[in-house]
Amino acid sequence: MSVLAITGGVGGAKLSVGLTHLLNPNQLVFLVNTGDDFRHLGLHISPDLDTLIYSLAGVACPKKGWGRRDETWSFLKTLEDLGGPAWFQLGDKDLALHVYRTQLMSNGGSLTEATKEIAEALDVTHSVLPCSDDPIATVVDTEDGQLSFQHYFVKYQCRPQVKGIQYDGADRARLNSSLDLATISMVVICPSNPYLSVDPILTIPDFRKFLQNSSIPVLAVSPIVQGRALKGPTAKIMTELGHTVNNKTIARHYKEILTGLIVNDGDAVDCETIRDLGIECVARNTVMHTLDDRVRLAQDTLDFGKALLSRKRCGR
Hints:
Strand order of the largest sheet: 5-2-1-9-10-13-14
Order of helices and strands: EHEEEHHHHEEEHEEHHEEEHHEHEH
Low-confidence stretches: none
Largest sheet: 7 strands, parallel
Distance between the termini: 20 Å
Helix content: 25-40%
Radius of gyration: 19 Å
């Protein structure tokens, strides 16, 4: 069995950590959102790739879920004193990684090659792949006009009302060539923000075509728990786009590709309406406060996926 985990952000990284405790590097590969990537102070910054690598390496800040633990902030403080743009938090350790990535890419390396070198340096043994080496940029249409993702998410802290979201370059992007789709037996969409963290990946034409026409199970863990998102602006965005904040909305969002959805055990009542959409559904504890929670949910996810795979093989 080879599992492809689609992920971005803190929620996705939590389940990803759990999966690495159950599957070895030959059984699991991560495909990571790059719609958040941007240039800042001349540096190539890949927030979702870094969050996943830091989490898998065990060096992520436990309180925030992103950035490095035991970080120092001398660079940012000096930048602020100089009147520079200090709205995007760059800790000293984190900054070193961005400088190194930028150097690797300036010397002709791809984002995939730079990511591999950084992951190996931090003793991450599982494959972490940017969804594409072609540029993809998430742009948020708001009441204040178009905002790049980081300006919407970090600088303005998700306050502007969202009217729509675009993924510039995604329709022309090529799926990461290092990913061998023929070896994948299951796809797991981690509980990441569907609109900001997952859709940039799903918009890549050859990957979406694969998911729509594949005979393998594609399952997702819902980021919604009893009508709210545990972290980030998912619920806010759903409301502003005119959607009801519930698991059925998540199921409908992924309907073209989804085989099964895992919802929180407190939302078990939603499973019947989701099955009416032609999507299998189970209720499990999807809240991950501890490592044990992450491993348990990862096991529940894999068990669900194996059951779906067995049904597909039996023609049910």
